[in-house]
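Researcher: Let's do a round of design. I'm pasting the structure tokens now; please hold your answer until I've finished.
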């Protein structure tokens, strides 16, 4: 152990399990990788704070993967655009189909989001109107 390692904080068992849970596909594998008993891992998962940390770590992992896919999407579109003019008619037709279908899906999604935003805005106005005292009520 060098001087640097000596002053670095050691990972707690919970941190080891958390890392192992994110890096493996089962509780058994996480227990083995972290060197912590399987029963202890299950007990940690019953702790609401640990479970919240675990879910947050999983969410960050998924968000990172989504970001990587989004970055690759522009490259995929460029490749599809190139391939739609290739000499193989089946490949060209399939590329054109993919581009068209995804363009339509994109428009549909945008339309739905616009409609949802409009409905939510109208709903919020109704909530605000209902919350205001009505001075015109007659008893």
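Researcher: That's everything. Go ahead.
Model: Designed sequence:
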């Amino acid at each position: 152990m060098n001087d640097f390692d000596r002053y670095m904080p050691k990972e707690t068992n919970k941190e080891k399990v958390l890392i192992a849970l994110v890096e493996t596909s089962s509780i058994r594998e996480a227990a083995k990788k972290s060197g912590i008993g399987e029963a202890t891992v299950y007990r940690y998962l019953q702790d609401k704070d640990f479970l919240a940390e675990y879910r947050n770590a999983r969410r960050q992992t998924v968000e990172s993967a989504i970001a990587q896919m989004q970055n690759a999407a522009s490259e995929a579109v460029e490749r599809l655009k190139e391939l739609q003019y290739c000499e193989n008619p089946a490949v060209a037709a399939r590329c054109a189909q993919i581009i068209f279908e995804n363009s339509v899906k994109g428009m549909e999604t945008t339309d739905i989001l616009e409609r949802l935003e409009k409905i939510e805005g109208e709903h919020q106005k109704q909530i605000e109107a209902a919350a205001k005292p009505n001075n015109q009520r007659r008893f």
